[in-house]
Amino acid sequence: MTSDCASRTEYLKYLAKRNGFRSWGEYQKHLTLRRINPETGVKYKSPKEYQNFLARRKINPETRDNYKSVREYDKYKAIERSKRKKNKELSDLILKILVYHDKSQKWLADKLGMSNQSISEYINGRSMPKRKTLRKLKKILESKEIPLNRKNLESLLEPKSEVETSVGGELVKSIKSLLSN
Known about the structure:
Blueprint: H1 8-18, H2 24-34, H3 47-57, H4 70-82, H5 85-100, H6 105-112, H7 116-123, H8 131-142, H9 150-156, H10 162-180
């Protein structure tokens, strides 16, 4: 890496420009289209074709069979992400706050400047927002439009039953860490 680049992203941009491309994505596409498909002996026609080839080489741990497409692989990975503790906690937090304040997913998407689909992925735990989006979310939750202080937030998430006690307690901790960042 050169000393001019502060991050990996900057380095990749630098590398692409050094090779005459406008972006890292354009450079990656160029490199992909130069590859030869070992199944056909012909160059790949698109990055999607290459991604499908790579996905078909991976093995699904549940079925022990190869994935049939990149879509099947992506679906499996999304389900795995939704099982992560942090994804579940954030998902519960967003959903409970929207319900508590009678706000819609579309309202939150508009506030964050995102698509409904992105918010849906957060709510379903299939995706975790970037730090920048988490900061925006924090500002929205602390705004006057949603009169929400930490006491309200804790009472909102207090467990209703013994089964929810451990989940609720962990959720309150994660919310406090989210709000303190």
